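## Example record

The block below lists the input lines for one assembly entry, exactly as stored, with component labels intact.
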Amino acid sequence: MAVTLDVNGKTLNVNSPPDTPLLWVLRDELGLTGTKYGCGVAQCGACTVLADGAPVRSCQLPISAIGPARITTIESLGGSHPLQQAWVKLDVPQCGYCQSGQIMSAVALLNSTPNPDDAAITGAMDGNICRCGAYQRIRAAIKEAAAAPAPAQVVAAAKA
Amino acid sequence: MNKSLTRIARGATRREALVVGATLAGSTLLVGCSVPEVLSAGSKVKPGAFGPFLKFAADGTVTVVSKHIEFGQGNHAGLAAIAAEELDADWSKVKVEQAPANAKLYGNVNMGGTQGTGGSSAINNSWTQLRTAGAAARAMFVSAAAAKWGVPASEVTVSNGVIAHASGKQAGFGELIEEAAKVAPPEKPVLKNPKAFTLIGTDRVRRKDSQAKSDGTARYTQDVRLPDMLTAVVAHPPRFGAKVDTFDAAAAKKVAGVVDVFEIETGVAVVAQSTHAALKGREALKVTWDESKAETRGSAQLLQQYRDLASGKTAAPEKNGWKAFDSKGDAARAAEGSNAVELAFDFPYLAHAAMEPMNCVAMVGKGPPKLIFGSQTPTLDQMNTAREILNLPGAVEIETLFAGGSFGRRSNFQSDYVVECVRIAKKVGKGRPVKLVWTREDDTRAGYFRPLTHHAVRVTTDAEGFPATWRHRIVTQSIMKGAPPGAPTAEIDFTAVEGSMGSPYLKATPIVDAQLITPDVGVPVLWWRSVGATHTAHVMEHTIDILARKAGKDPVEYRRALYQKAGANRHLAVLNLAAEKAGWTTPAPAGWTRGVAVHECFGSVVAQVAEVKLENGSPKVGRVVTAIDCGTAIAPDQIAAQMEGGTCYGLSAALFGEITLTNGKVDQGNFDTYRVLRNSEAPTVETYIVPSSAPPTGVGEPGTPVIGPAVANALLAIDGQPRLSQPFVRA
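Predicted structure tokens for the full assembly:
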């Protein structure tokens, strides 16, 4: 029984069993490997994607539970989203493995709170572990992106 | 210090040398060949026209080939900058490529020619090598341009990637590749005077991988997808040293997508068409374990045994007993004297917990054996693979990818997870790609931990409150004991004592009696970012603060006096810089208390002043002022990044990190039980670099061990309570 998903604006029929977590469908079946496995129990945030604009941990989300929700992954940001530009400008990544999840959490934050204060950043980002400890630059890059004039179409794409 | 101890002390900065020995010990030695010759036998990797480290493209791109893996340290930026500086390349056109496995071309100079990354040595061991490579290629392009233009080579300049002559002639590297490739490389390329550096040491030296690591395209082992590839998971025994007794694969084989289930040396492998199918297959598997040879002691029991050894309650075994790592003056007097400060410290096992759990892709049984993964020590991985498939080490191809962190975990004598993958791939055969995936729980429970460690310290002081006698006992498992049989062994496993051994505080103490014992325990242990310093820095630095308080002296002043006695000028310089920048002599911001610590490891010295407060009984760390002397600073922004990240890594362990075992079973599995530092708990680190013209030293590890004692010392100042064990916060 194929499950139909809306991923990055495309309607896709996927063959994985319905109990398969979205993470493994994205990675193994759809080849969208930017979304990472880190813990499998929604503790680390490396697998964060957006469902209708809200951050979700794809490792704990069976595809049968998604329904018509629009899924957005790191691949949809296009590489020059204001957050990605800030990430590059400040050389945020170290090993880089957690950064797709960090950025997707930050996208959701800025979409709902364009000028987040420290408490808002903590609230949005504390679920994303970075073992390299790039936290200080992550916070700085979110503020940098929030201050940058955001190209409307990029934000719109991320919201889609 | 006697002669043999001096020799050991020198070795402390060179644990890598033993890696080579261990590597060779497991191999067939070919008489008459050099080490790298043996290790690269069978390799098809060849250097290009400009040597192994540089490639030039017609579009003007310069590619620097990195013999070192990039798993966060930023070394690719620094390595590229070293070559680009001597080449006078246009930094914006410089790219970095990961070298294949070949010890002869890409051996680590500090590891005796073994290809590997560790001991914070990437920049240090490449310094002269890449400068020479850059200068040689530059000279070849200059010769080619001079010949083509009919002008003296001495009149040809290179600047920002442009080769030029006063006559107006100019060209980029890309336009002269063919001609330059024919020029014989100079025998002794002339290196720049460091004063003429225009790139090294500037903020222009930035990471080359930030874009790929911000848009999801950076490729890690976990992301490898190949035609016909299978994914494997393994059911491992619950205790170290246990083996499969029986297993029932019937239910597992019924799971859709599961292709095969079979026993390997380390457990039962489930091979499937997708990760999810493999995981479901493993859930359905029934395995019973033979635990007759398993380690069944718990960590609390082990720690009690360690304490009893250190206190003398339990006598040391005749074999593998106490060994002195520092001995000075009449050692017997270190046990005498009244009014001594006596402290006992405990440090738990720690998992590395890299974000990307261990994994590997292997192809065996058709064509040359090939591995694709984040190989930290390709030579060891080649050797261990070659042994499994009866081939020459050099014949094992390795494509090294980015790795999602390592912190030491990806380099071990057994290549544990690599060999596991190779065994599965061998069984699958026909060269079919197999990706071994470990879950977070597999990774946390697989061992290779920072060893459980106990220190007992007894210090008496002179009339001015400075150490007069210092008795030190360390009980910990030996990491180097994990080396294969036949490897050369040092009298002392310096990975267990580095940081206590060689400490300026011991140098400044007239009578020292310092000894190590390394009990045998069936829990695999390994280097964990900054290795011995993960515990010795805490012990030395917290002891010093306790002594300073007892003497009624300021901790910074007290250290200064000891560094002056010991002639520890670099320690003094970083201490002074950190104290100045932190405003040590001025009051801390309201509500905050400062703590200081200083430690040297991997050739660099780091001082930190941390501002700390207690919130609901838990330490909160705010501003952390860091000063580092790492010799010539190549990439200042990446040095700062390593201080920020290293501090978080050390703080995570100091506050929360702990692996415990109950009856031999690891109690933790995932981040819900193995707590790590999160964003809101991260400090704000400021980094200041001591100007230096000495060769560059490490930055990946030295930022890690200092924060724990700096926080402990601030907490001591807050509530007068010593912190004699890590972690400080327990659930």
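Helices of chain A lie at 22-29, 82-89, 99-112, 118-125, 135-147, 152-159. Strands of chain A lie at 3-7, 10-14, 48-51, 54-57, 70-72.
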